[in-house]
Design a protein that fits this description.
By secondary structure, the chain is an alpha/beta fold. It is built from 8 helices and 16 strands. Helix 1 (about 15-25) runs parallel beside helix 3 and helix 1 packs parallel to helix 8 (about 305-320). It is globular, with a radius of gyration of 19 Å.
Amino acid sequence: MIVIDGSLGEGGGQILRTALALSCVTGKPLSLHNIRKNRKKPGLQPQHLAAVRAAAQVSGAKVGGDRQNSLELLFEPGPVKAGEYGFDIGTAGSTTLLFQTVLPPLCLAEGRSVVTIKGGTHNPLAPPFDFIKEVFLPTLNRFGINAEASIERYGFYPKGGGEVRYCINGAKQIKGGGFSRRGNLLSLTGVSAVANLPLSIAERQKEAIIKRLEKFSPEIAAKSVPSPGTGTYVFLLARYEHALAGFSSLGERGKRAELVGEEAAMDFLVHDATGAALDPYMADQLALYLALSRSKSSFTTSEITGHLLTNLGIAQMFVPFEYEVKGEKGAPGTVEIGNIKG
């Protein structure tokens, strides 16, 4: 039984999602307490419950404490089975964060899985669908993980109603490797989108990006996207010789369109200036897969985040490996994974 204090480290939902994923992969039962204890709304909220129930469904787990606001959870997984799954968060909660929970076990299960998730597709404090499709999955493909993503409807806060679909081919194992050097920037492309709002807003977001990043000659498409609600976002894809990176920003009521574009542009500039291979979110997530590869691996990132350190710490509770983080939290750094135990 792996016992985890959910208030440790950054103390948020990331601990829950990572622990659930690793419990399914390793078959080790999990006892989690103090779940999100220091958050404004502590305990399991609807989006977290959706992740618990999704992990339980793919692994046939026995679960205790899976109720709203619960600070305690007992999770006893069975064998993970590939197949067709449908999950409805029921709110505008992030579909990409739920996908983050079920991908590790399903990518290592024998056979092909098709996963449909309904909820939010472009949320604050979560990677947008574009990042998953254009950066996350192509990067994981390098390590032997084969999955594809498509979107039917876009979901924005507060209405949600988005729908995404993932096709996952099971892999026998995850390969190790490294992302120490990214090479030269080959292209900078992106999208500026609106849902049920004037296209002129998307054009203003686009022009703000082009103005800020003029020397990089970005190619940005302005478009309208289908959604039950209203919303706007921008997404930038930086394609380097040896790595991909993604940057995004969301619109909201009272927020100038120009600021939406400028936020994503500035995030790109900060990352590009460091020379690091991986953007912060990709580093956060890749660490988990490299730990499961049980091989020596390394990567550089433009920011060592609390999520990265949390994922490494939680992974070490389930999988016997060692790691070293070179650099300070909030600054660029290098992560080395290796010296496998057992």
